[in-house]
Amino acid sequence: MNEDTLEKLAIREAQENWVIWRDAGDWERFRTVWADDSRMMATWFQGTGEEFVRVSKEGFEKGVNILHTLGACSIEVAKNRAVSQIKMSILQRAKVHDVLCDVTCIGRFFDFFEKRGGKWLLVLRQPIYEKDRIDPVDPAATLRLDGDLLKKFPEGYCHLAYLQWQNGFKVKIDMPGLRGPDTEKLYARGKTWLAGGSPY
């Protein structure tokens, strides 16, 4: 294998470790995927990687049920920096209007990586939310959503946001979607990062 392939494999391993360690509650190892100055952006949380580890642990211990799966991946490497897009699904289970529901949200993790001390670390994770759906866990249950509330949330994660809002989360409502100016700005930030600039 050439060096570029080896670097991409190391980045992909870091992404897979993120999912396995976070969803399994392996907080000490989960902490090791983040750079010291890292940031995580999500519908329900925006802050440092270290803070994200803490709030994820707190939620896990309270029974918050958020899981992730990964799919296809595309990685660009420029010396000690990389930008990766990896297909993902977010799966959250909680009650909505007293009906236990599953939300499945499909999108991409848009990741800014940097190699520090010989290890690829996550500097910024910005999800792109493409589409989602909500289903009662019991198929015989009847779920009625508030249409006016649902319309307040972006199309790409409206059901996920609805569930999180109903369960007391403060939801960010301007996250990048499948297309649009916020997504184009994110792509531009990725190019700036690879050229040596800031990810913000």
Structure keywords:
200 residues, Nuclear Transport Factor 2, Chain: A
Summarize the structure.
The chain is an alpha+beta fold and 200 residues long.
Describe the structure.
The protein is of the alpha+beta class. The protein has a single domain, classed as Nuclear Transport Factor 2, Chain: A (Roll). It contains 6 helices and 6 strands; from the N terminus they run H-H-E-E-H-E-E-E-E-H-H-H. The protein has helices spanning 3-24, 27-31, 49-61, 147-150, 158-166, 181-194; strands at 34-41, 46-48, 65-78, 81-96, 99-116, 119-136. A 6-stranded mixed β-sheet has the order 2-1-6-5-4-3. The protein is globular. The two termini are 33 Å apart. The relative contact order is 0.15.
Topology:
Blueprint: H1 3-24, H2 27-31, E1 34-41, E2 46-48, H3 49-61, E3 65-78, E4 81-96, E5 99-116, E6 119-136, H4 147-150, H5 158-166, H6 181-194
Parallel strand pairs: 1-6
Antiparallel strand pairs: 1-2, 3-4, 4-5, 5-6
For the sheet with most strands, the description reads:
6 strands, mixed
CATH topology: Nuclear Transport Factor 2, Chain: A
| CATH C-level category | Alpha Beta
Strand order of the largest sheet: 2-1-6-5-4-3
Overall average residue pLDDT:
97
The sequence of SSEs as H and E is HHEEHEEEEHHH
Which residues sit in consecutive blocks of at least 5 with pLDDT less than 50? none
